[in-house]
Structures are given as structure tokens and as C-alpha cells.
Design brief:
single chain, two-stranded antiparallel ribbon, two-stranded parallel sheet, globular
């Protein structure tokens, strides 16, 4: 969620307001809002952006399978943790 000055992990995959891409190499961040008026789902937005890894608070089985089939490593993180902490501990997060 792009709430205020600090982005937070959204607990509801399909209701997220966008995707925050984090470059693990240099820490740069780029927010990609989801157009809620269109038919594009959060899953479709992620498939378009083609990240190698995704951290979400919750994801349904069909969406997880679709992203995994596209080669995206999907993990689940706590919505109470800062984004930077989740990114730094990605390999230790449980698989979705």
C-alpha cells in the first residue's frame, strides 16, 4: 500500500493499490499504481512488470500458480514489517 510516506505490505493481494519495485542491488524504489477502473488485475500487473521475486501479505492459490508459472518466486511476509526488512530477508520468508 502506498500509504503516506512509508509504503506498507498490503494484506489483501487483489485489493493492493499498486506494486513497489525494489532494486536489491542499489535499493532504489519505483511505485507502479494499479488502475482500479480497468480490468487489469494485480496478477496481470505483476506479469507485465516481470519482477523476479514478489513479497505479499496474502495471495490466492490461482494467482500464486500463475505467477510461479511465469518464473516469479512468491513469498509471504508480515504486513507489520518494514518493506526494507522484508526485502533484506527475502530468502528466509516462507514460500506462498
Amino acid at each position: 500500500m502506498n500509504a503516506g510516506s512509508t509504503p506498507l505490505l498490503c494484506p489483501f493481494f487483489g485489493k493492493c493499490d499498486g506494486v513497489l519495485l525494489v532494486n536489491a542491488a542499489d535499493g532504489s524504489k519505483e511505485f507502479h499504481p494499479r488502475d482500479r477502473s480497468g480490468a487489469k488485475s494485480m496478477c496481470d500487473l505483476l506479469l507485465e512488470l516481470k519482477p523476479g521475486q514478489v513479497i505479499c501479505g496474502f495471495i490466492g492459490k490461482p494467482e500464486k500458480q500463475k505467477l510461479s508459472a511465469a518464473g516469479i518466486d512468491v513469498r509471504v511476509g508480515s504486513c507489520s514489517c518494514p518493506i526494507d526488512e522484508l526485502v533484506a530477508s527475502f530468502s528466509g520468508l516462507p514460500m506462498a
